[in-house]
């Protein structure tokens, strides 16, 4: 008997305010705003039955809806994107919810496809959520606290995330690879709702890494390796870099 296909949707959490670059999602990126480009890129992957932007901003809501897209206004104040998404999907009939970062308009379809495939694989019934990791080569990148590192067990389930270099290189001749956590998540709906309802604990509060909450409460996070690191727009300089990349592709 054939299994019922999974209903998979993408949610793009989008705040207008941003500490380092306020209003970045409404900046122009070759004739379209960053958030509209991200929305269209998610749609164009062909991997999702539905794509939504979920926001607390009238400006962002209007930008998406006036261009024919789906947007949802948050009812409450939220500290993180996962909480914003959980509120939006609570009453939706979905199986897998993918959190697409609103400030990463260069979506890699191949990496997303690999991410979603784990929910159809041999470990599927053990996976609460899945995310991406990319190898780090340079010492400065490994030591950079803005790069969240992840270590996994032999089955690629996450053991821990940290802003510190993990594992600590006491012996540098073991051939270990350091991995950066790429903040794109695919959640089972129930895992996402559990996150929304569970209080933050000390490890998450200390590191300021929201996915640690899942580990602290015993959830299983499957990590999928990719070589694509994406272009996150956190600063005006990042925006210029994204413009250069789009120009080169035209």
Automatic annotation (TrEMBL):
Pfam family, one: CTP_transf_3
UniProt key word Cytoplasm: yes
Enzyme Commission number, as recorded: 2.7.7.38
Pathway field: Nucleotide-sugar biosynthesis; CMP-3-deoxy-D-manno-octulosonate biosynthesis; CMP-3-deoxy-D-manno-octulosonate from 3-deoxy-D-manno-octulosonate and CTP: step 1/1
GO cellular component labels: cytosol
Any one of the GO BP annotations: lipopolysaccharide biosynthetic process
Catalytic reaction equation(s): 3-deoxy-alpha-D-manno-oct-2-ulosonate + CTP = CMP-3-deoxy-beta-D-manno-octulosonate + diphosphate
Enzyme class (EC, first level): transferase
Purpose of the protein: Activates KDO (a required 8-carbon sugar) for incorporation into bacterial lipopolysaccharide in Gram-negative bacteria.
Protein name listed in UniProt: 3-deoxy-manno-octulosonate cytidylyltransferase
Organism: Salinimicrobium sediminis
Lineage: Bacteria, Pseudomonadati, Bacteroidota, Flavobacteriia, Flavobacteriales
Gene this protein is translated from: kdsB
């Amino acid at each position: 008997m054939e299994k019922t296909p999974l209903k998979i949707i993408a949610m793009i959490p989008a705040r207008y305010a941003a500490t380092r670059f306020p209003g970045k999602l409404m900046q122009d990126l070759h004739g379209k705003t960053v958030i509209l480009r991200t929305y269209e890129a998610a749609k164009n992957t062909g991997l999702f039955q539905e794509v939504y932007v979920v926001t607390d901003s009238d400006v962002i809501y209007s930008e998406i809806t006036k261009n024919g897209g789906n947007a949802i206004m948050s009812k409450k104040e939220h500290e993180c994107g996962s909480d914003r998404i959980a509120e939006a999907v609570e009453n939706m009939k979905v199986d897998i919810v993918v959190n697409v970062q609103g400030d990463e308009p260069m979506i890699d379809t191949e990496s997303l496809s690999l991410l979603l495939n784990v929910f159809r694989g041999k470990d599927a019934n053990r996976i609460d959520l899945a995310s991406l990791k990319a190898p780090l080569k340079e010492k400065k990148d490994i030591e950079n606290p803005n790069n969240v590192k992840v270590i996994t067990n032999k089955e690629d389930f996450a053991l821990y995330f940290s802003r510190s270099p993990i594992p600590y290189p006491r012996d540098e001749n073991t051939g270990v690879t350091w991995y950066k956590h790429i903040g794109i998540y695919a959640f089972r709906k129930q895992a996402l709702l559990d996150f929304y309802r569970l209080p933050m604990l000390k490890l998450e509060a200390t590191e300021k890494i929201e996915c640690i909450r899942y580990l602290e409460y015993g959830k299983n996070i499957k990590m999928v390796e990719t070589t694509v690191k994406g272009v996150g727009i956190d600063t005006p300089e990042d925006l210029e870099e994204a413009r250069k990349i789009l120009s080169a592709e035209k």
